[in-house]
Amino acid sequence: MQPRNMSMSGVVDLAAVKAAQEAKAKAEQARAEAARQGGGGAISPADLVIDVDEAGFERDVLQRSTEVPVVIDFWAEWCEPCKQLSPLLERLTVEYNGRILLAKIDVDANQMLMQQFGIQGIPAVFAVVAGQALPLFQGAAGEAQIRQTLDQLVQVGEQRFGLTGLAVDPDAEPGGVQAAPAEAAGPYDALLEAAVRALDSGDFAGAVQAYRNVLADDPGNPEATLGLAQAELLGRVQEMDPQQVRKEAAEKPGDAEAQIAAADLDLAGGHVEDAFGRLIETVGRTAGDDRETVRVRLLKLFEVVGADDPRVIAARRALARALF
Q1: Do the Cβ atoms of 172 and 97 come closer than 8 Å?
Q2: Beta strand pairing call for 70-75 and 124-129
Q3: Confidence (pTM)
Q4: Parallel, antiparallel, or unpaired: how do β-strands 124-129 and 132-138 relate?
Q5: Which of 232, 283, 277 minimizes the C-alpha distance to 256?
Q6: How many CA atoms within 13 Å lie on the side-chain side of 286?
Q7: In what order do the strands lie in the sheet with 49-51?
Q8: Closest listed residue to residue 192, CA positions, set 169, 215, 168, 219
Q9: Catalytic residue among 79, 140, 196, 237
Q10: How many CB atoms lie within 10 A of CB 122?
Q11: Can you give the pLDDT of all 324 residues of the chain as single tens digits?
């Protein structure tokens, strides 16, 4: 089976590049400081590779993906290509020194996870970034290709979600997996209050700017991330003619822009599952740039609702199936 690659370019918010560079520098400083202090708050390189089952998936993958991009290696004992790929992934994970975490899932023991991700054959490699699943490649892959994919994944985590990774100490005892110590941020109360006031008054552009001001200094701020997604949604819907949008969506089921606009209206009106279902169906109907545009908008709508919402988790799984 030939490797199947997943472009991540559509996930990157170019407006966040400057903030991402600052976040990366802070992460490197935190790792260096942890090393100077004897590894306080750091983890062992052995803890960068973990075995995951269905019972621990939410804790070990979904929750950890809010700290660091999690690469998932779907494998089985009988799979010969897996025996070549898995050691390579493990070695590279240690080499990336806390910028990724590798979760190994035995498909024979975890059939439900295999089905939820729509796995048709192994080896199959996915990533979860801030709770969002991204297929990376399926089948055998060379080291150069894997490095390129991992570099993109790390970049997405930093630029789009502000994930700065884990501090690693070679002398730390295995079994102490924990988050890297967070650098104190803030205070942002005044900016967040200004954003809320702007939202309440219908000044969505002002709210967007206020939230972006917070994120420029603290890219991982969850309140600002959620607020920005909501303000952008309300700003888009404000300019729409609902009747016309619904008419075009009904007449053009395969038109990406028509379905995206209708999904925005669905979500703004509180019809969360309708919005998600509409875009997942559109992913299945479209291809190329249109498909990528729909996928990226769906990821933005996930942010509006929140990564921990059960409807978002279910929709992520459905999206992963639709992409294959």
Answers
A1: no
A2: antiparallel
A3: 0.49
A4: antiparallel
A5: 283
A6: 23
A7: 49-51, 101-106, 70-75, 124-129, 132-138
A8: 215
A9: 79
A10: 23
A11: 333 333 333 332 333 333 344 444 444 554 455 455 544 468 888 899 999 998 889 888 988 888 899 999 999 999 999 999 999 999 999 999 999 999 999 999 998 888 888 888 999 999 988 777 888 988 878 899 999 999 999 988 887 777 778 888 888 778 754 444 444 444 567 778 888 888 888 888 888 888 888 888 888 788 888 889 889 999 999 889 999 999 999 999 999 999 999 999 999 888 999 999 999 999 989 989 999 999 999 998 998 888 778 888 889 888 888 876
Which has the closest alpha carbon to 264: 234, 306, 294?
234
The answer to whether residues 101 and 48 touch, using CB atoms and an 8 Å cutoff, is yes
DSSP state of 4: -
Note whether 104 and 50 are within 8 A (CB): yes
- Give the residue from 282, 287, 288, 280 showing the smallest Cα distance to 257: 282
Single out the catalytic residue among 20, 42, 52, 82.
82
Q: Are 176 and 47 in contact (CB under 8 A)?
A: yes
Cα–Cα distance measured from residue 73 to residue 139, given in angstroms and rounded to the nearest whole number:
11
Q: Provide the 10 A C-beta neighbour count for residue 108.
A: 12
Q: CA 13, CA 156: separation in Å to the nearest integer?
A: 9
Residues facing residue 135 across a β-bridge: 126
Which residues have C-beta within 8 Å of that of residue 189, sequence separation ≥ 6?
none
Compute, in degrees rounded to 10, the torsion defined by CA atoms 314, 130, 9, 3: -70
Both tokens assigned to 247: 């008419």
Active site residue 79: yes
